[in-house]
Design a protein that fits this description.
Elements: H1 2-6, H2 10-16, H3 19-38, E1 43-48, E2 51-56, H4 67-78, E3 88-93, E4 97-99, H5 112-132, E5 137-141, E6 144-146, H6 148-155, E7 158-162, E8 166-168, H7 179-186, H8 191-200, E9 204-205, H9 206-212, E10 217-219, H10 224-236, H11 240-254, H12 258-274, H13 276-286
Parallel strand pairs: 2-3, 3-5, 4-6, 5-7, 6-8, 7-10
Antiparallel strand pairs: 1-2, 8-9
Helix pairs in contact: 4-5, 5-6, 6-7, 7-8, 11-12
Length: 302
């Protein structure tokens, strides 16, 4: 901007560069900078001892999965995802709501079809990414998970929830049926349970979620952190490539018929045995010692 000012006539420059204009200009700039600096990130990522923790960090907006939130979550998941130091991911949230689902303000007609398409495409990408990752993803839920927030829980490999947590797909109540959350929900709970949740919008308790398989374990709020981290540390005790191979095989065979699933699983077990870590694990068991994992895809034999 200052280059363009210098190129103006001297009269125009003096007019624009008056003391009042300068003060107003730099006041607005300072306010913009301060606003940018003080805006908290939508997600927080930290990693230690192989465990990456991602926290949804927008409690004032009930951790809504806006396009910006989904983009931030995707970035936190994908950063150095192929690094062998990463062994497991835990997704949690600040505030009393794990996630309320999509930001309905983004879904009004004023944003248009293209934006709506971008929102649901981004959401689907994040949900499938979680299941396609080479490491397990644990949802740590302490509060309400609705609509796409419930979808996020259903998409994770493991989910630990507190007794006060609830889960719902209430889109039908506001005229937007939870069709995309139904994809993950219908693969996590029995069909009739999913249909009841989708058609009525009625929330289910943490114990009901446990009964129907939406979550893996229900604990007190005081034990949530301990339980989730305990699971994560247990995952870290295993070989990363063995876990990655097993996770991919499980996801693939779940979409197949029984016979095809057995064929897939058998072939994967042969591949598992060809890994150096596969042979190390068997050898260590036979020698009654702890295995020394390489955590690489190095093969022991063809």
């Amino acid at each position: 901007m200052f280059i363009s000012l210098r190129s103006m006539s001297e009269v125009a420059f003096r007019r624009l560069a008056s003391l009042t204009w300068v003060r107003r200009h730099f006041l607005r700039s300072s306010q913009r900078i301060l606003s940018t600096q003080t805006t908290p990130p939508l997600t927080i990522r930290e990693q230690e001892d192989g465990i990456r923790r991602i926290v949804l960090n927008n409690p004032k907006k009930r951790n809504a999965l806006s396009l910006a939130m989904l983009t931030s979550l995707r970035e936190d998941i994908l950063t150095d995802v192929d690094n062998v130091d990463l062994r497991v991911i835990i997704i949690s949230a600040r505030g009393p709501v794990f996630s309320s689902g999509h930001d309905l303000k983004e879904l009004t007609s004023s944003h248009g079809r293209d934006h709506h398409t971008s929102v649901f495409r981004a959401c689907s990408e994040v949900m499938t990414l979680i299941q396609d990752l080479p490491v397990p993803v644990i949802a740590m839920v302490n509060g309400i998970a609705t609509a796409a927030g419930c979808q996020l829980v259903a998409s994770c490999d493991i989910a630990v929830a507190t007794e006060k947590s609830t889960f719902a797909t209430p889109g039908v109540n506001v005229g937007l049926f939870c069709s995309t959350p139904g994809v993950a929900l219908g693969r996590a709970v029995p069909r009739k349970v999913a249909m009841e949740m989708l058609f009525t919008g009625r929330p289910i308790t943490a114990q009901e979620a446990l009964l129907h398989g939406l979550v893996s374990k229900v604990v007190s709020e005081e034990r949530l952190e301990e339980e989730a981290l305990g699971m994560a540390r247990r995952v870290c005790e295993s070989s990363r490539p063995v876990v990655a191979l097993g996770k991919a095989a499980f996801q693939r065979q779940m979409a197949q018929s029984r016979d095809a699933a057995y064929a897939t699983a058998a072939a994967v077990m042969v591949e598992n045995l060809a890994l150096r870590d596969g042979q190390e694990g068997i050898t260590a068991f036979l020698e009654k010692r702890r295995p020394m994992w390489t955590n690489s895809t190095e093969r022991a034999h063809d």
